[in-house]
Amino acid sequence: MRRGISVAAVVGVLALTATACGGGGDSGNDGSKAAEDPGSVSGTITWWDTSDATNEAPAFKKLVKDFEAKYPKIKVDYVNVPFDQAQQKFKTAASTGKGAPDVLRSDVGWTPGFAQLGYLKDLTGTPALDKSEDFLEGPLKNAAYQGKTYGVPQVTDTLGLLYNKELFQKAGLDKAPATWQEVKDAALKIKEKTGADGIGLSPDSYYSLPFLYGENSDMVDAAKKKITISSAASLKGVETAVDLVKSGAAPKPAGTDGYNALKTDFKNGKLGMLIDGPWATKEIFGGDAYKSRENLGIAPIPAGSTGTAGAPVGGHNLVLYAGSKNFDASYLFARFMTESAQQESVSNAVGVLPTRKSAYSQTVLADPVRSAFHDALAKAHPRVPIPQGGDLFTEWLQHYTKILTLKEDPKAGVDATAKAWQSALLKDYGVEE
Amino acid sequence: MATVVTRVRRSFSTHWYAWAMVLPVVIVLAVLVGYPLGRGVYLSFTDANEANVGRTIGVNRIPATYQFVGLDNYWKVLSGQEGHFYSRLTWTVLWTASCVLLHYALGLGLALLLNRKVRFRALYRVLLILPWAVPAFVATFSWRLMFNEKYGVLNALLTQVGMDPVDWLGDATLQKVSAVAVNVWLGVPFMMVAILGGLQSIPAELHEAAEMDGASPWQRFRHVTLPGLRPVSGTVILLGVIWTFNMFQVIYLLIGQGASSESEILVTYSYRLAFQGVRDYAGSATYGILILSLLLVFAVFYRRLLTRQEAATR
C-alpha cells in the first residue's frame, strides 16, 4: 500500500513538473513554436539597439528589414538607445515591467548583473543559441552567468595598440613595441624626434585592465572571493601606467572628456600611439593623418613585466527580457541577427568583429584592421563573470582618473577603491594585499 | 472638542463651494506629492534595494525579501558610519551660500543699473535675461565645452596671454569654482528681474523726499532702497536657497559622473545611490528625506526671522 502511495506521489509530482515546464501554456509563449515551425510565428517585438546612431545603426537597421522580409508575420520595432543611458533605462523599465524591450543589445559587462536581478531569460538550449559551438570562446563565456547562457554574442572587441606609422618612421622606429618598457622608449623617441606626443592613455577605468592583466592580476578574483585591485601585482600595473605619464612618454590626460581629446589628437597626427578598440577605427580613418588607411598600424596590447599581455574581451550580447510576451519571435530575431552571414555583412559594413568562428571569412580577414584585432582576440582576457562586474568600473573610474592625472597617489587610490568595493558591492569578499 | 466639530460643520455648510473647488487640487496633490512622499518615508525605514524588492518578470518570480529596519538608515547616515553625509553636506551648504550670495549681489547690482534711465534700456534687459531663457542643460553643456582643458575657449584665451592652461573640470577645487560660476551665470537673471520689479514698486517720492532732506546716495540706498526691497528679497533668497540646494543639472552635467565624487552635492549623491549599481532605494530615500527636513527647518527659521525683522521695522 505504501508503495502505491509513493508511486502515486511520484506520478503526481511528475505531472506537476510537466505542466510547470509548459510555462502555463496560456498563450503558447514557451518558445516551442520558434523551434518547430518558425514560419508560423507572428507578432511584434521591440529591439533596443545601443550601437552608435550615425556610424553603426544603419547596418543594423538593414538587418532588421531583412529579418522582416524573411519572417513577414513578425514586425520589429527598432529603437536606438544611446549606449551610456541604456543600462539604467533598461533597469528602470525591467524592474517596473513597463516599457521594457523584448530584445536588448547588452554590453557584456551588464549581462551577469541583469541575469542576477532576474531580468533576463535563460537562453540555454533555446533556438536563440543556434550552433553555439561555433561562437568564439571568450564572447560565449561573457554571455554566461552561473552555468546558464543569458545572451547571444553579437559583436566582440578587444583593445589593441594603434600607432601612426608615419610618426614611427620619422622617429626611426621599425616595429611596434611589445612591452610597456618598449612603449615608453618608443614614445620618448617620438616626442624627441617629431614633437608629437608619445602614447595616449585614456583615464577611463576600462583602459586600466591591460596594465592589470600584464602583471597577471585583475580587479577581483571571483574564485577566491578576493578583491585584487590593491594587490602588489595590480599596483605594479597601475604604476606602470603612471610612470608613462610621469616620464613624459604619455601626455597627462584631461580629467573630463580625456578619452575624446586623445582620440582627436591621434586622428590629427599629434599623438604617436593610442590604446583603443576596433570601434574607434571608423572615426580615426576620418582624421587627417589617416587619409591613407595604410598609415594606421595595429599591434596587440603590450606585455607587462611578467611577459604576459592581456586585453579585455568586450562586446555586446543580444539578451531577451524575461517578461517578454513573445519569446518565439524574440528567439528567431536573436538567432537571425547573430547568424554567420549577418555578422559578416555588419562586419564588412562597419568594421566590428564577429563572434562566430565561421564569420571570419576571407573578406572579413582581408581587412587589416579586423585581421589585426582578430589576432589580438586570441590572447584576450575574459572579464570577471560576477553581477557587480559592470559596477566595479564606476568607483574605480574616479580613482583611476585621479591617479593618471597625478592627483592621487596610486597606492592610496587602489586602497580606497578596494575599500569602497568591499563596503558597497562585494561585502563577502576579502581584500588581497 | 464639540466646538471644533461644530465649527468645521458650520464652515463646511457655509463654504461648501470653496471645499468643492479645492477638492481636485487636493486630490492631485495627494496623488502627485503625497503618495511618493509617503512611499519615500516608508522606504527609508527599510533596507530595500533593487535586488530584494519583490517582482514578477515573465517566468521569473522573485519574492520580496527586504525588511523593516526602523531608524537604522538614519542612524548610519547621521552617525557618520555611511561616511559621505557630512562632507557632502558641508560642500552643499558652501555651494548654496556662495551661489545665493553672488546671485543676489550681482542681481541687485544689475537691477540698480537697469532701473536708471539709460538708452537702449529695453535691449539690455532682454540681453541680460537671455541666460535664463536658455535651458539649463544646454547652457551647462556649452560651459563644459568652454572649460575643456585642451580645446576649450577659456584655456585658449589663457594661452593667448601667455599663461598655462588650467584643468578646470579635473581638479577638485577648480571643479567647485567652475560649478559655482556656471550656476551664477544661470541664476543671476532671475534675481535681476525679481529685484528690478521690487525697485520699481518703491515710490519715487520716497527717494525725492530723502534727497530733499539731504541724504547721500549711500544713505538713500541704505535707508530707502533696501527696506523697500525687503519683501521681494526675502522671497527670492528663500527660493534661491531651495533651488540651489537642489540644483541637480549643473553639478551632474558639468562635472559628469566621473571624477566628481568630491563635488557632489546631497541631491546628486542621492541620485547616484538610486541609479548606480544595484539600486539602493532605501539609502536614496533616506537622503531624500534628510534633504527635505533640512530645507524645511531652514524655511521655518528663515520665515520666522523675516517676520521678526518686519515687526521690528514697523
Q: Determine Rg of chain B (CA atoms, Å).
A: 25 Å
The number of helical segments of chain A is: 18
CATH topology name of the largest domain in chain A = D-Maltodextrin-Binding Protein, domain 2
Level-2 CATH architecture of the largest domain in chain A: 3-Layer(aba) Sandwich
Beta-strand residue percentage of chain B: under 5%
Strand order of the largest sheet of chain B: 1-2
What's the rounded overall pLDDT mean of chain B?
A: 87
Helical percentage of chain A: 40-55%
Number of strands of chain A: 15
Query: Taking all residues together, what is the mean pLDDT of chain A?
Result: 87
> Overall 3D geometry of chain A?
globular
> Could you tell me which chain pair has the largest interface and how many residues each side has?
A-B, 36 and 33 residues
Q: What do we call the CATH homologous superfamily of the domain at 84-279 in chain B? A: MetI-like
Could you say what the CATH topology of the domain at 84-279 in chain B is called?
A: MetI-like fold
What topology, given as strand order, has the largest sheet of chain A?
2-1-3-13-6-14
Given as residue ranges, the uncertain stretches of chain B (5+ residues, pLDDT < 50) are: none
Helix/strand order of chain B, N-terminal first: HHEEHHHHHHHHHHH
Helix amount of chain B, in percent?
A: over 70%
- Percent of residues in β-strands of chain A: 15-25%
Provide the CATH top-level class of the domain at 84-279 in chain B: Mainly Alpha
Write a brief caption for the model.
Chain A is built from 18 helices and 15 strands. Chain A has 433 residues and is of the alpha/beta class.
Describe the protein's architecture and organization:
With 433 residues, chain A is α/β, with parallel strands linked by helices. Chain A is 44% helix and 15% strand. In chain A, the strands form four sheets. In chain A, strands 2-1-3-13-6-14 form a six-stranded mixed beta sheet, with helices on both faces. In chain A, α17 (389-404) packs antiparallel against α18 (410-424). The longest helix of chain A is centred in the N-terminal third of the chain and has 20 residues, at 2-21. The model of chain A is unreliable at 1-28 (pLDDT under 50). Chain B has 314 residues and is an all-alpha fold. In chain B, 74% of the residues lie in helices and 2% in strands. Chain B contains 13 helices and two strands; from the N terminus they run ααββααααααααααα. Chain B has helices at 2-14, 16-44, 72-78, 85-115, 121-133, 136-147, 153-160, 172-200, 204-212, 217-245, 248-255, 266-275, 281-313, and strands at residues 55-57, 60-62. Chain B has a two-stranded antiparallel sheet with strand order 1-2. In chain B, β1 (55-57) and β2 form a beta hairpin. In chain B, α5 packs across α8 (172-200) and α9 (204-212) packs antiparallel against α10. The longest helix of chain B has 33 residues, at 281-313. Chain B is flat and about 80 Å long. The chains are: A alpha/beta (433), B mainly alpha (314). The interface between A and B is medium-sized, with 36 and 33 residues.
